[in-house]
Amino acid sequence: MAREQKAKAKVEQVKGKAEGTVGRATDDESLTAEGQTEKSKGDVRQAKEKIKDVFRR
User: Fold this and answer.
1) How far apart are CA 14 and CA 9, in angstroms?
2) Is the CB of residue 50 less than 8 Å from the CB of residue 10?
3) Where are the alpha helices (DSSP H) in 1-57?
4) What are phi and psi of 11, to 5 degrees?
5) Longest C-alpha distance within the chain, in Å?
6) Along the 57 residues of the chain, how does pLDDT read in single tens digits?
7) Helix axis angle, 29-56 to 2-25, nearest 10°
8) Is residue 10 within 8 Å of residue 46, measured between CB atoms?
9) 31: nearest Cα among 42, 40, 22
10) DSSP helix/strand/coil, 27
11) Which of 5, 8, 29, 39 is buried most deeply by CB count within 10 Å?
12) Which residue, among 24, 20, 12, has the nearest Cα to 36 in the 3D structure?
């Protein structure tokens, strides 16, 4: 399960970064903001999984 969540976090981060880049390239502020939100969600999910790993050891 942890690997699945870590993979999901990485996908969210990459997808958010790509959306943000496309948004900046096309001058679409809403897409840029959406991309940043997606990336942030991935960052939070990844941090949560790292914390869980610390307590499993």
Assistant:
1) 9
2) no
3) 2-25, 29-56
4) -60, -45
5) 46
6) 678 988 999 999 999 999 999 999 999 999 999 999 999 999 999 999 999 988 887
7) 160
8) yes
9) 22
10) coil
11) 39
12) 20
